[in-house]
Amino acid sequence: MQRGTAQIFLGIGLILMGILGLKLTDLNLWWIAIALGGVVGTHGGISISQTARV
Known about the structure:
The chain crosses the membrane at residues 7-24, 30-48. The chain has 54 residues and is mainly α. Helices cover 87% and strands 0% of the residues.
């Protein structure tokens, strides 16, 4: 599996974990996991698109 693909799936997992944690605990701390998932997933998508161009 490529590194970018793994980052995309890790980002999706972090987002889902953050949403689930936010719904269960109602703590605003879980927004960090959601934002981090977005950043990691976006970075993975960008790295895949850069290797596809080369």
